[in-house]
Specification:
Blueprint (H helix, E strand, L loop, with lengths): L2 H29 L3 H25 L2 H11 L2
Helix pairs in contact: 1-2
Length: about 70
């Protein structure tokens, strides 16, 4: 990587947590809720969505669907 890329990556690494904090603060302020509650709710929602996506992904796995289809025609 060039020096320019390294400096851009470092700047992004510094700015990203600040921007996330600002977004959480703004959302908490607009919803009139405490900021830790908004953050915890976001983490909980992310975990739930991730779990559902993984469950659906396993159910729609092409190899699994192929095996189920083969078992239906036996």
């Amino acid at each position: 990587m060039t020096m320019l890329m390294l400096s851009l990556v470092r700047a992004l690494a510094v700015l990203l947590p600040c921007l996330i904090h600002l977004a959480t603060w703004l959302l908490a302020r607009s919803l009139n809720m405490p900021q830790p509650l908004v953050h915890a709710t976001g983490v909980f929602v992310f975990a739930q969505v991730y779990a559902v996506e993984m469950r659906v992904g396993k159910a729609l796995c092409p190899l699994r669907l192929w095996r189920q289809l083969q078992s239906l025609f036996r």
